[in-house]
Amino acid sequence: MSHQAVAALCLTLRGHVGLGKSRLETLCMLVVGMVAARTVNLGHVASQAGRGVQIASTYRRLQRFFQHADPGEDWAAPLIARLIGTEGPWMLALDRTTWKIGMRDVNYLVLAVVTRRFRVPLIWTMIEGPGNSVSIGPQSGPPIGVQKGSPLVHG
């Protein structure tokens, strides 16, 4: 894992994310590790830590981050909106994705910003039941990130 990339991301996010120095660094390690590993599997992400770093130690650090850090439900969308900026129109993609985990269907509806090379999720919500366009009905609450005062909601 590139320590320069982690340090640069920490500098970029420092004024935008309400986390302490250690937790912010762990968040940045997580992001850079996911990009490098091309997966969200913590074992694979931890293995990206670099030479001389124990994989088990990094893995435990990432676990502790998820146990104790709570940036809130809607921290990502406003952050991404501020970092992308408001110049020019955004191209958005709305995607429903389904995974079968054992006997359970896991469905997410995701709104993402389309960039030249990849999609950046802004907001998402879980959809109950099997996935198809006919089965999408009323949801129990707003998607994560869409709340009053959010820069993504006007009015």
Keywords:
2 domains, globular, alpha+beta, 3-stranded antiparallel sheet, 155 residues
Alpha plus pi helix count: 5
Mean pLDDT: 80
| Order of strands in the sheet with most strands | 1-2-3
The proportion of residues in beta strands is 15-25%
The helix/strand series, from N terminus to C terminus, equals HHHHHEEE
Point out poorly predicted stretches. Answer: none
Description:
The protein is α+β, with helices and mostly antiparallel strands. It has 2 domains: 3-68, no CATH class; 74-155, no CATH class. It is 36% helix and 19% strand. It contains 5 helices and 3 strands; from the N terminus they run H-H-H-H-H-E-E-E. It has helices spanning 3-13, 21-37, 42-46, 55-68, 76-84; strands spanning 92-101, 104-114, 119-127. It has a 3-stranded antiparallel sheet. A hairpin with a 4-residue loop joins strand 2 (104-114) and strand 3 (119-127). Helix 1 (3-13) crosses helix 2. The chain is globular, with a radius of gyration of 17 Å. 14% of the residues are buried.
